[in-house]
Amino acid sequence: MDFTIKERIQATEILPKQYSLDEYYIKREILSKLAFSEDEQNKLGIRISLAGIIWNEVHNPDIFDIQLTEKEIDFLKESARTLDKNKQINDLVVSFCERLLGA
């Protein structure tokens, strides 16, 4: 699945905070795959500030091809559906949720 830097961050924000043990293992795999390596962090200038996570957009490749399984993609989609159903989507993740849900 293709991700921008922003979507890699947004994806981690939509994952559930409480889950079953099976869901925990799926979430852990997703987080592992979406994590920025130390080389990526240095190359992209990714850092955490009081304003949140920031990066150097000049060196920002448009797309990262992150190999997620169908089960992991379904988990992301279900996470977005749950946020939508519970009216918990916020401005920080709305664009990624719209993409996942085909809105």
Describe what this molecule looks like in 3D:
The chain has about 100 residues and is mainly alpha-helical. It has one domain. It has five helices and four strands. A two-stranded antiparallel sheet has the order 1-4. Strands 2-3 form a two-stranded antiparallel ribbon. Helix 4 crosses helix 5. The longest helix has 16 residues, at about 70-85. It starts with a strand and ends with a helix.
In short:
With 103 residues, the chain is mostly helical. It contains 5 helices and 4 strands. The chain has one domain (2-101).
Largest sheet composition = 2 strands, antiparallel
Instruction: List low-pLDDT spans.
Output: none
Overall shape: globular
Based on DSSP secondary structure assignment, what is the total number of beta strands? Answer: 4
Strand content: 5-15%
Termini separation comes to: 17 Å
Helix content: 40-55%
Largest sheet strand order: 1-4
Number of helices: 5
Order of helices and strands: EHHHEEEHH
Spell out the blueprint of helices and strands.
Blueprint: E1 2-3, H1 5-14, H2 21-34, H3 38-44, E2 47-49, E3 52-54, E4 64-65, H4 70-85, H5 94-101
Antiparallel strand pairs: 1-4, 2-3
